[in-house]
Amino acid sequence: xxxxxxxxxxxxxxxxxxxxxxxxxxxxxxxxxxxxxxxxxxxxxxxxxxxxxxxxxxxxxxxxxxxxxxxxxxxxxxxxxxxxxxxxxxxxxxxxxxxxxxxxxxxxxxxxxx
Amino acid sequence: xxxxxxxxxxxxxxxxxxxxxxxxxxxxxxxxxxxxxxxxxxxxxxxxxxxxxxxxxxxxxxxxxxxxxxxxxxxxxxxxxxxxxxxxxxxxxxxxxxxxxxxxxxxxxxxxx
Lengths: 114, 113
Description:
The structure holds two protein chains of two kinds. By secondary structure, chain A is an all-beta fold. Helices cover 0% and strands 52% of the residues of chain A. Chain A has strands at residues 3-5, 10-14, 19-21, 24-26, 32-38, 44-50, 56-58, 64-68, 73-78, 87-94, 102-104, 108-113. In chain A, the strands form three sheets. In chain A, strands 2, 5, 6, 10, 11 and 12 form a six-stranded mixed β-sheet that branches. In chain A, strand 8 (64-68) and strand 9 (73-78) form a beta hairpin. The termini of chain A are far apart. In chain A, 38% of the residues are buried. By secondary structure, chain B is mainly β. Chain B has strands at residues 5-7, 10-13, 19-24, 31-37, 44-50, 53-56, 65-68, 75-79, 88-95, 103-104, 108-112. In chain B, strands 2, 4, 5, 6, 9, 10 and 11 form a seven-stranded mixed β-sheet that branches. A four-stranded antiparallel β-sheet of chain B has the order 1-3-8-7, with no helix packed on it. Chain B is globular. Chain B starts with a strand and ends with a strand. Chains A and B meet through strand 5, strand 6, strand 10 and strand 11 of A and strand 5 and strand 10 of B.
């Protein structure tokens, strides 16, 4: 069965510092991996995806993520955090052995401190 | 392009009452999803449509939840009767299957008292 784990409920980082939001996954076969961001009272917004190819994926707003097959991880990163990056971040995986559902993690709340 | 529209934004009902949510996807998107997001959790898929056909409804509590997408465009999700544990945000998303990207509406926040 597919699953996604986001081990940190909360991440705090100072403005200008690099940020990392962690995600590990479990899926049969090749994973399709995604990051979404959710601002208060808004729906989720797509940031980036990994389907195949280069393990380093670049997305919106300067975010990137690295697919690591051996560690089954897909951590979200940004070299320099902005206060406006403060939001809820969700990792998701799409699996193919039980339909083609998207499975979302429980989310990580990122706070960037001015 | 216009985003995914959902209404109402908020709804408060008493348990055992009925409620319906409406979703208008982005024009041209054949795939439509309904998710339930309980506070502190990630979205959980309830049902997925491809045009007006159901692709996956394995996690839809069919004894009380129903959904339809009659003309392959708008969709409604209904709960009848509601339970306290149905309190959540109900998210609608649409997309093009080949792109693997979902576009979400702002959601409907349901409170069951």
